[in-house]
Amino acid sequence: MSKPTDKILLIPGESGWEIWTGQAEAGFTLHAASLTSRASELTGIPGGDILMFFPVKAITAIPMKVTSEDDSLFAELAVMHAERLGMRPDPMAGQLTDTFVIAREGDTTALFSVHLRPPADGDLPTRGPKEFDISARAFPVFGDCLAVWKEFGRWVFSLSHQGKTVYCQATSVSSGLPDDSLVREIRLAIIQLSLQDIDLTPTHVVLWTQAEDPSAGALAGAFNASVEISPRPAPVLPEPRSKLLPADVRSARRAALRRRNTILSIAAVTITYLGLLGWFGYNLWKVSNDTTILRQKAQAAAPDAETYKLHLAKWEELTHAVDLNHSPVDILYRISRCIPPNGALRLKSAEITATEINLTGEAQQPAAVNGFSLALSKSNDLVGLVWQTPAPNQSTRGWDFVYSAAPPKN
Questions:
Q1: Is it the case that residue 268 has pLDDT exceeding 90?
Q2: Cα–Cα distance between 222 and 109 in angstroms, integer?
């Protein structure tokens, strides 16, 4: 039985990027520590699957509560919540958002929403990682904990509830020991979260530092909890795994240009090749021996033609995946913009396929349902959809409605 391949973890350290190697079951060990904060300058990365943990300064953490138990809606709800705060990820920059469940209580779910800023030049290693995550999830803690450590010379912190990360933030403080400025930024973050109905009161504090004379500094007694000081532990693989997958837009466009040029070159070669076959065929037709050779060449070229036809057929199958007009997330976003503000109307489910859209929802007043129906039919963003909007039905919770739509028949 072959030995499992080591995973390579790229972790932001106190002074620069760290390279850790190992396996999830046996643990990870430090392979090398650099002094550079630019991942593109890392050298000597061992072979294996790379998992890159983005530093806390590269993300915006948004804890939130949603009145839904449907995990499939969390990503869309997180994006809409971020848009209300003025953040809209670039769809050309890859998967820059992710959500993690913190706790569930009845029909309310507490979420930890992560919004990654598009990586700039030098932020990614030269060898593409297989997975991405954030550094705050690589070092789990227990209970309701405040963890403080340094990344690239600046203090960062994370707040956890029952061992699950709820919030993390990079500060502007770079002092040798935790000082009053750091405590002030942490307290301000806790206050801002409490205003959003997210109460985080740490019962214990951990300070991870490599300092020769470690001291809790201003953290001691600041949060009515003891401070545990130790070197930062070895990272672990977080669960569930993150869906973050950034993409360099310029590299993607260069790759698309290369693919287009490659296809044009193949087409030109194919045309030239077919022309040569015709010319040789005319000459070899005169000689039976040469005709046999031509047939052998045609038989040899047949698999290439079948492969090319299969390529075209599979590309046609991807039409609904690559056409933005068929994107379920984009269609759901355009539908959500038709919901009347302050109308207490919510969607309970949305089934979107290439040929049909089914919406179910409820509202406290029929006016909100009628306003939503009118907005759907008049929306410029939903031109081309033929809506079926029957009258709502009254229920014990208000008014239920079921709408459907389908593209017009040619």
A1: no
A2: 30
Which residue in 401, 344, 409 sits closest to 376, CA to CA?
Answer: 401
Domain boundary at 317, 341, 376, which?
317
Token pair in block for residue 142: 């227990």
pLDDT in tens, 18-49: 999 999 888 999 999 999 999 999 999 998 89
In the three-class reduction of DSSP (H, G, I as helix; E, B as strand; rest coil), residue 189 is classed as helix
Side chain identity at 379, as an amino acid letter?
A: S
Q: Strands of 131-134's sheet, edge to edge?
A: 27-33, 17-23, 7-12, 49-54, 131-134
Domain-embedded: residue 1: no
From the list 193, 212, 89, 84, the residue with the least C-alpha distance to 146 is: 193
* 71 and 196 within one domain: yes
Region of poorest pLDDT, from 283-287, 317-321, 399-403: 317-321
Tokens coding 23: 């396996």
pLDDT of residue 153: 93
Residue % of the chain over a pLDDT of 90: 39
DSSP for 101-134?
EEEEETTEEEEEEEEEPPP-TTSS-SSPPSEEEE
Query: Is 262 found in the same domain as 239?
Result: no
Residue ending a domain, among 295, 317, 339, is 317
81/97 Cα distance (integer angstroms): 12
Q: What is the domain-level CATH number for residue 371?
A: 3.30.1360.100
Cis peptide before 240 (omega within 30 of 0): yes
- Dihedral through CA 70, CA 159, CA 245, CA 96, nearest 10? 80
DSSP 47: S
Reported pTM: 0.60
DSSP codes, 288-349: HHHHHHHHHHHHHHHHHHHHHHHHHHHHHHTHHHH-GGG-HHHHHHHHHTTSPTTS-EEEEE
Q: How many CB atoms lie within 10 A of CB 290?
A: 13
Nearest CA to 31 out of 40, 41, 22, 23 is that of 22
Neighbours of 343 (CB within 10 A): 15
My answer on whether 118 and 198 are in the same domain is yes
Q: What is the dihedral of CA 360, 362, 368, 374, to 10 degrees?
A: 10
Average pLDDT, the chain: 85
Residue 32 has a pLDDT of 94
Q: What is the pLDDT of residues 53-77, one digit of tens each?
A: 999 999 999 998 888 888 888 888 8
The C-alpha atoms of residue 87 and residue 116 are separated, in whole angstroms, by 11
